[in-house]
Design goal:
By secondary structure, this protein is an alpha+beta fold. It contains 5 helices and 7 strands, in the order E-H-H-E-E-H-E-H-E-H-E-E. The chain has a single domain, classed as Aminopeptidase (3-Layer(aba) Sandwich), CATH 3.40.630.30. It has a 7-stranded mixed sheet, with helices on both faces. The model has no long low-confidence stretch (mean pLDDT about 95).
């Protein structure tokens, strides 16, 4: 698995992957990303800002993640040296392959190289499955933040000093 920084032409594929997962979750009653909650324009702006990374297979983008160095929207004005993973997505054709965890471990390596102390991510408090998965990957909950209509569990794992 070799993530590549997304380019403008990838924005539509990232958005399509997000939409397909929104629909898949909605059909199963999973409360994580409401259908239509991420406009293509927002993805395109984030791609232009260098925030998205993609993994490709023979069919195109099979996985993606948004990786940023700050997250005031969810974590507030926390100035701890951290890397934040958002929008972790794996196409259903690769479900169960370990690709999601591999992307998180790749982000972990980037965070270590950058001298960060924490790798952070979050999920809706109603999504127990993601809570279990993230805990199994070594993340611990450190707080909850209120959003309009839902709560988000903030999770992190420490990165050993270099």
């Amino acid at each position: 698995m070799t993530p590549e920084q997304a380019v403008a032409a990838d924005a539509a594929a990232i958005h399509a992957l997000r939409r397909s997962l929104e629909d898949w979750m909605a059909a199963r009653g999973i409360d994580q990303w409401p259908v239509g909650s991420m406009p293509l324009e927002r993805v395109a702006a984030q791609v232009a800002d260098g925030q998205w990374w993609v993994v490709r297979d023979d069919e195109g983008v099979v996985a993606s993640a948004r990786v940023v160095t700050s997250d005031p929207e969810y974590w507030g004005d926390d100035d701890a040296p951290a890397l934040y993973v958002h929008g972790l997505m794996v196409d259903r054709r690769a479900s169960g392959s370990g690709l999601g965890r591999a992307l998180v471990e790749w982000a972990d390596a980037r965070a270590r190289e950058a001298g960060a102390s924490w790798l952070r991510l979050d999920h809706r408090s109603s999504n127990q499955h993601l809570d279990d998965v993230y805990r199994s990957w070594g993340f611990e909950p450190v707080g909850v933040t209120d959003r309009p209509g839902f709560e988000v569990v903030l999770m992190q794992r420490p990165l050993p000093a270099r």
